[in-house]
Write a structure and sequence with these properties.
213 residues; mainly alpha; globular
């Protein structure tokens, strides 16, 4: 939306809202970003060879549900922050609830584990690069989210960019589950979350420039 268009819209009356974006204009960039994320994961990392066996374990589905819940909360934040005047008071609760749930699961797991094995649950085998891979995989989805938001009328550009990065990072974490060999809730609640927060920081940095009218 251009500045002149926004001024004209606001001057026409107090009850005039931002025009709804066509569904296709939203879905196509999102699908393209998701497809690019999956292709990037397959090209760089590949699917874990024991995925069928891992999918039979509750720990695998815990990290899938964790990433999916954060992605849903992130895209809800993107939708609300893309339009001025929409209530956002509950967004912190939506974003924090999955994190709190997985941290409670991680605390229970640590409580049940002998002290000498607890460090392994936290560090795993891939902590050095897991967050950065999630952030890397998030870039196509971040570009799609910023493209969609730019066509609307976000006013808090840095916060909107952070929301786009969070949603993209959580979506990338969900795709990354197909490759990641880690199964511990302690690992997922720490290093997956860090990767998502790195993507959020990238979005926050890009937001003011990418979303400026």
């Amino acid at each position: 939306m251009k500045t002149d268009d926004l001024i004209t819209m606001l001057s026409s009356g107090p009850d005039v809202g931002v025009a709804a974006r066509p569904t296709r204009a939203t879905l196509l960039p999102l699908l393209a970003g998701l497809l690019a994320c999956v292709v990037l994961m397959l090209a760089l990392l590949g699917v874990r060879p024991d995925l069928a066996q891992a999918a039979a374990l509750p720990a695998f589905w815990l990290k899938v549900v964790f990433a999916a819940a954060l992605a849903a909360a992130g895209w809800t934040a993107v939708k609300r922050l893309a339009v001025p005047g929409v209530r956002t008071a509950r967004l912190p609760l939506y974003l924090a609830a999955p994190v709190l749930a997985v941290w409670l699961a991680a605390a229970a797991l640590l409580w049940q584990t002998s002290p000498e094995f607890r460090a392994a649950l936290f560090w795993g085998r891939t902590w050095r690069y897991c967050p950065f891979l999630i952030a890397l995989l998030s870039l196509p989805m971040l570009a799609a989210a910023l493209h969609i938001m730019r066509g609307l009328a976000p006013t808090r550009l840095r916060l909107a960019g952070a929301a786009a990065g969070f949603a993209a990072g959580a979506s990338a974490a969900l795709v990354y589950c197909l490759h990641c060999p880690e199964m511990s809730a302690v690992f997922v609640g720490s290093w997956y979350l860090l990767g998502i927060l790195i993507a959020s920081a990238i979005g926050a940095l890009a937001g003011p420039r990418a979303l400026a009218w």
